[in-house]
Amino acid sequence: MTIGIGGSTQEEALGRLRNMLDGVEPIAIAEYLARIDNAQRRMKQLGLDAIFLSAGANLEYFTGVRWSPSERMVGAVLPANGALEYLAPAFEEGTIRDFMVVNGPVNGWQEHESPYRLLLDCLQRMGIQPNTSLRPCIGLCPSLPFFMFDGLRLLDPGYAFTDASIVTSYCRQRKTPAEIALMQRAKDMTLEVHKAAASILHEGISTTEVVRFIELAHRAVGAPGSTFCIVLFGEASAFPHGVKYPQTLRRGDMVLIDTGCRVHSYLSDITRSYVFGEPSEHQRALWTFEKDAQLAAFAAARLGARCEEVDEAARGALEACGLGPDYQLPGLPHRTGHGIGLEIHESPYLVRGDQTPIDVGMCFSNEPMICVPGEFGIRLEDHFYMDESGPRWFTEPSHSIDDPFGLAR
């Protein structure tokens, strides 16, 4: 039997977990102000007059306001020079102020009024005047709905609009020590949850029951719950993001669990794959190929290397084992990894075509999954961050198919 798999009741496993949030502090106001300064410097370098930080991760990153996007325009106008101002429905002003870490005036619009007109009025009060011959350049977040962009564009042709990612993504890609510390804690918490989940497995347990347990386990270590959870048994594990039907665990099944949590808005995302029972030689061989591909990707993550080179290294390792090539199955059907921070998937990406140079502070998943249709899938997903000397693991990768959590050391 695989070490660490089974042997505990759910009550016993939950009883061993402890709250891991003691002493964990959120991002401080000084760091938010430094982020704004960094963005304004880059805006000046690139010739942007202002950016509109619409509801979502960009608004939260620069202001602390955590707000889900909807059909109502909410955000903050950040000029290249001067202080930011918020824009929101008038009835939401109190809530916006409650969320604020960075203070600023709130420009409120009534339900029958145009938020687009209000945003352009705000720009003009900031001294950014429309000009049809030399149009001021305003950055918009890619997540802003098209109808909002269209409303702004049609209202006044005296402004030019561009993708704000050249500012926002550039800033967010390079995590500070405070951000890395929050992600480290979230990942430590989720790894403990993985160990607990493995310990409760028994023949006949359903994927639905394991998902419910993982939610409780994340709460037990101090998280609000799971941000997501994928549990797959047997043939279903060959589908990277799961299937619509629950499964029941049988001896010899490959188990794939992918889950994460949030600590002060920063995310974890860890996948473990192992066998319930005794691995077959085929399962054992492919598990080893998967681990080798993960280590090849990690070794390729050098400062200054292009993100796509990491994907190339993982695919090369798998192709050397007779898998693939390219996206063909059995093999790796998706990119090797993604950035992570306030969003579970954010730029840059470890994928062909992403030529972003790897820089200090960047954080990535490393998950070159092997899918064998009709049989099973194996995904070992850990994350790493870049410091001045190269890549550093957030969590120690799985040790072996017989001892995935290193409990026998």
TrEMBL record:
GO MF: metal ion binding; metallopeptidase activity
Gene Ontology biological process: proteolysis
Domain of life: Bacteria
Keyword terms of this UniProt record: Hydrolase, Metal-binding, Metalloprotease, Protease
Residue ranges constituting the Creatinase N-terminal domain according to the UniProt record: 35-132
InterPro entries the record matches: Creatin/AminoP/Spt16_N, Creatinase/aminopeptidase-like, Creatinase_N, Pept_M24, Peptidase_M24B, Peptidase_M24B_aminopep-P_CS
Record-linked CDD domains: APP_MetAP
Alphabetized PANTHER family for the sequence: AMINOPEPTIDASE (PTHR46112), AMINOPEPTIDASE YPDF (PTHR46112:SF3)
Family listed: Belongs to the peptidase M24B family.
Annotated protein name in UniProt: Xaa-Pro dipeptidase
Organism of origin: Stutzerimonas stutzeri
